Amino acid sequence: MIHKFYQTDVDGKVTTAHHVDEKNVINELRRILNDIATTFGQTKLGDGFYPKDDEQGLEFDTNRITIITVAETLTIRQCGLVKLSAASPYALGLPTAIGNTGRYYCLYKSDDNINLITIDAHGEETINGQPTYAGLNYQYAFVILRSNGVEWIILSSGFK
């Protein structure tokens, strides 16, 4: 992740501000996803909708960014980068993991507040054995999820 530091001189006092550029965060997430693609035998992500290797079932479109601001349930067509913001806390539903082996979502929170976005697994399904994931309450927090055909697995998560 690229961090930028700015210095300003106000009334003889030098202050330093820290800024993380959202474009650089998206590029860093794409780099992580390309590394994941290489792990599964792909050359790179971003050339359209996957899989190229039907055996691994890798399916992810890094060129499309879905923007979500309110509670809803994701669709399979929204696989890829999902930019989230929350004027108030809400839950975001995942589609079924069953029959969607290899599908990925990279969810990241873009706004600067602590409103929690909870990710809900479909029905009785789970996310790493839990019914929900509640780690998206800070700006640039992210989670990368992959379906193994039974549940959603967290491949990576973090925050600034």
Topology of this structure?
Blueprint: E1 3-10, E2 13-20, H1 22-39, E3 65-68, E4 72-73, E5 80-84, E6 90-93, E7 104-109, E8 117-120, E9 132-136, E10 142-147, E11 152-158
What percent strand? 35-45%
Structural class assignment: mainly beta
Unreliably modeled segments: 1-7, 43-58
**Strand order, sheet with most strands:** 3-5-7-10-11
Number of domains: 1
Count of extended strands? 11
- Main pleated sheet: 5 strands, mixed
Helix content: 10-25%
Give the SSE string. EEHEEEEEEEEE
CATH class: Mainly Beta
Task: Give the averaged pLDDT, no decimals.
Answer: 78
Give the overall form: globular
Give a quick rundown of the structure.
The protein is mainly β.
Provide keyphrases for this structure.
160 residues; mainly beta; Jelly Rolls; 5-stranded mixed β-sheet; 4-stranded mixed β-sheet; 11% helix; 37% strand; globular; disordered N terminus
Report on this model:
With 160 residues, this protein is mainly beta. It has one domain: Jelly Rolls, CATH 2.60.120. Helices cover 11% and strands 37% of the residues. The protein has one helix spanning 22-39; strands spanning 3-10, 13-20, 65-68, 72-73, 80-84, 90-93, 104-109, 117-120, 132-136, 142-147, 152-158. It has a 5-stranded mixed sheet, with no helix packed on it. The protein has a 4-stranded mixed sheet with strand order 4-6-8-9, with no helix packed on it. A hairpin with a 4-residue loop joins strand 10 (142-147) and strand 11 (152-158). The radius of gyration is 17 Å and the shape is globular. The chain starts with a strand and ends with a strand.
